Amino acid sequence: MSEPWVLHEGVPIATAQVLSHFEQLDRFRKAAPTVAHTAVVAGDPCFDRLLESAADRDLYRAALGLRDGRRLVVVNTTWGPRSLFGQQLALVERLVAELPVDDYLVAAVVHPNVGHAHGRAEVERVLAHARRGGLLLVPPFDWRAALLAADALVGDHGSVPFYAAALGVPTILATFPTDALDPESPIARFAGEAPHLVPGSSLRDQIEKAIHTYTPAEHADVTGSVTSFPGRSLELLRALFYGLLELPEPPWPATPDPVPVLHHHRQRVSPLWARVVEGRVERFPSAVDHATTPRDRAHLVVDATQPTGRAAEMADVLIRDAHEAPEGWAARAFDRLPGLTVAGLVEADRCRLRLRDGTEIVRHAAPGQDPAVLASVLYNELVSGGRHQSF
């Protein structure tokens, strides 16, 4: 917003330069004093849409399948070589690899300029392993819905992390080129306060720490600079535009539209590495094995309702939804797969478990629990020498 960008042959390019906060007005006057008279502070219409919808957070979470305490971690990148994608492209796969699929959904919000520069197909190719591991690649204009549902955000020096922080979402910066922004800007000042990701340390520990310890009030002095007129931006902008056109304003109020809901049907990720930790099953996608260290004391779970390929030959546990399961499917699976130990048929809130010797065990899931994990519980009992009980 300095003079070379807002003047043409010494004449202001725009009749009005719209700013969102009065702190920008102070900086604009310093950077472009001859154009300062064109500045109009009129709030932020984008943030106003987020504010309009913030009370419906539960709705946005339910539409993404975030129930029973499952958390949403949004990883956001702006564009350019100094962005998160430009500096730490593998971070997305690491997040998918290190966060258990039953406890977390990871969503990627990628700046549209990345797709414009490289092509949407290339973005999808780069994230293919993570997507097979359960990553939600958010459509370019649905990022607001993801932000409203988020439990934490990992980002860079783009605007989305600052919006997240202003909404009170725990925000961690993975990369931040301090010389890329005006050091007096709120985003640059927020970077000096916000937690920064430590690449070599456990991402899960850092995410959970941020969720439990992040205090939005600590950053309110900075994040409050997102707008000087919360909820009023459209009102002010419409008055400005109609005034410039010398036309009367419409009689109806200018109010922001709510953010459209983003629907995402949770997919059953397969294959999965599963392990029992302190009596609780944790499952991680095999598709991103290359992004993390080998799983200790884990077994491989394959979903028979998806194309299994070679993964089935390594499966310790095979699961299948009861819907349209053919008679005798478990017996045929044991005949075909000599390494298989447990076959589980998921029926509503229970899992009908079969062993190689024909033993059948029925177990019921706890409220909110995926019945498929019961097959992993039984497998762990068998390999650890524990006893299993028929129900």
TrEMBL record:
Pfam families for this protein: Glyphos_transf
Organism domain of life: Bacteria
Name of protein: CDP-glycerol glycerophosphotransferase family protein
Lineage, highest ranks first: Bacteria, Bacillati, Actinomycetota, Actinomycetes, Catenulisporales
